[in-house]
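Batch manifest, entry 17 of 40.
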Amino acid sequence: MKTNGFGLKRLACLLMGLLLLSGGSRADERPTFYSNPFTLNGQPLFNYDAFTLNSRGVLALVEGNPASAQCKPVRFRAYLRRAGVVVQRGPSDPILAVYSVQLHEVLKYALPGDELVIDPVDPAHDQAKRVIRLKAFAWLIPKPNPDGC
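Output type: structure tokens
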């Protein structure tokens, strides 16, 4: 009996095409984060340069557009780092996972030059990790928001 090699090639091409059209497995997809995936008091945070030792408000990390109601909260850790060593006082804790944090509670123990580390809990969200060097105060007028307001 003679096998038809052309039919097997067709079947393989058809299966590959279906796999590509299906988009693969959802488990392989990474979450979508905007360039600034943080909110401060429920509003998108556009300027990390404005962080000082006296910053106030509720900081949260979100997946998706931080300006939309469809954004999803993401658990994270917020802690201070001084000269490469974690400052573990109050809510500055590299183990404590939260959906939001009061900045003044974490920054209460900060000194100029310390780093505020915002580290998502889920490894799939690693792209949202930020390390912000803290200053005593903002030297320049904060940059305007991208929408011009």
